[in-house]
Amino acid sequence: MELNSSSCNAEEISTKRCRTCLHFQLRWMIFIFLFAFLFSSAAAYDPLDPTGNITIKWDVISWTADGYVAVVTMNNFQMYRHIMSPGWTLGWSWAKKEVIWSMVGAQTTEQGDCSKFKGNIPHCCKKTPTVVDLLPGVPYNQQIANCCKGGVIAAWGQDPSASVGAFQVSVGLAGTTNKTVKLPTNFTLLGPGPGYTCGPAKVVPSTTFLTPDLRRKTQALMTWNVTCTYSQFLASKNPSCCVSLSSFYNDTITPCPKCACGCKNKNCIKSDSKLLSVAGVNTPRKDNTPLLQCTTHMCPIRVHWHVKLNYKDYWRVKIAITNFNYRLNYTQWTLVAQHPNLNNVTEVFSFDYKPLVPYQSINDTGMFYGMKYFNDLLMEAGPAGNVQSEVLLEKNQDTFTLKKGWAFPRKVYFNGDECMLPSPDTYPHLPNSAPVSSTVITSIITASVIYLIIMVIT
Questions:
Q1: How far is the C-alpha of 246 from the C-alpha of 188, rounded, in Å?
Q2: What positions does the domain COBRA C-terminal occupy (predicted)?
Q3: Do 255 and 369 share a domain, yes or no?
Q4: What is the DSSP string of 220-232?
Q5: Are 27 and 65 contained in the same domain?
Q6: Are residues 185 and 307 in the same domain?
Q7: What angle, rounded to 10 degrees, do the helices at 15-42 and 438-457 form?
Q8: Any idea which of 12-21, 33-42, 62-71, 182-191 has the lowest mean pLDDT?
């Protein structure tokens, strides 16, 4: 919004009225700025994975006397955010009075009121069914391809073959042609907690399938897609992890910020408490309430970045991930770091590594994850509740420096959620160099903003 100086013509209105006009317009500009800032924070957009989403595809494979049979496929196209145990929960609202006659590879959590039916009783009569995956090991006649994994779906960047889930549903009291079928609405997805927002179902070109001998193509009778995107802002008010820092050139260890993950309404237990020996204390709760080890940061996960060695042409970093939750093991965990020297990773010793290049011209982000059957399971809090690796990086002599915290990461994500980093003025610094106080910087910025506002008003 531009400040319209012509509306404050001195010949038409008084100076006092002009200032009132400017005050009003300035308030509107601040309001619009704050609104845009808050809206962008809530938006489901990840700059390190700009195209990441979960796409839910419905393929109608046959018509029935009163409806259709559809295969529902969930594709996780997120590079480093997976759905861990206890798995996904999918919900929607029927457009008419549809019922679910049967399901293969999944089940609804409630049947609902089916009292008006005689003989064949539907699997679910609820207007808003809630569907969950079946557990591994169910009988073969209840399975289809990519089902029955307890709702666990891997990230696309970590394991594309395991980033798919599926089930089959037989729908009754519904349309029996492409023109009479009404698409479900109000899709919801928990993965396993909140954070996902799903758009409306949209009809797309029918999916084509290849026969096992690859000599014939068939296609779905009708297909529609639902796209769900994740927002950490919607998932939780507080971060779920934090970062601590250290280096070989400074004895100071920069801890996670105090109360980095929030300290209010959190129960914790000391690491030497006798309660930890009580049977069942580590058993997960239905509401996934954590049992955290008492720390100053109160985060379930801490990532420690240690600048370990400095060679002539290389430098070495040690990364350690520690679990402080006594009730949760992290399966298929992922760690994403952003640092300008990740474009020259020479070797990662105990983790698997994959560069992430969301923008082709910038290669400064990488994903670390556990080696299968070795350290892809991060155990609950305790002596075994950590994984670690070292990373060897080749120097770019034009950019490499140990000054001003350059050797520390710009961003860190664990399981797709951004971790809180310490304030830059607390980073370990080289001897004989002192960091610039953040208080001084804040004061300068505040004074500059106030000066600009005064200049505009006067």
A1: 42
A2: 240-428
A3: yes
A4: -SEEEEEEEEE-H
A5: no
A6: no
A7: 140
A8: 33-42
